Amino acid sequence: MTGDIHRLEIVNMRTPRGIAKVMGTVISLAGAFTQKRYPAQLSLTTWISAVGAAQSALFTTFAERRPGIWAIGFNIELWTAIYGGVVGSGLIIYIQLWCNEAKGPVFVAIFSPLSTILVAIISYFLLAEKLYFG
Questions:
Q1: Are 5 and 25 in contact (CB under 8 A)?
Q2: Are residues 72 and 81 in contact, defined by beta-carbon separation less than 8 angstroms?
Q3: Distance, CA of 48 to CA of 55 (rounded, Å)
Q4: CA distance 115 to 88
């Protein structure tokens, strides 16, 4: 949006790309204002996780239309999804909220890209995944 105000960027509101860009900016700003004003941080974490799950489900319904893909049995797949969702996301968001209180939002923003790099390195060594550059 600031690019539009300062005439650094042109957004064509008649194309899907322009509409998506404006909607994404508005949603991001709304989330930032909600986080500043929201008193209960752990319920905010729940809200963030619920919205993320809804977005993922909506995207997946368009990306993968075969119903067999959605089937999760009562086996390791179910426990992996529960662990990844509850422990992984919940713990990371809780730590980010704690860092936000202790050091401020800049500290959290600095380490967000670093976490992606750390996940790639750890998955390379622990899970023997191949790394691709580019």
A1: no
A2: yes
A3: 11
A4: 13
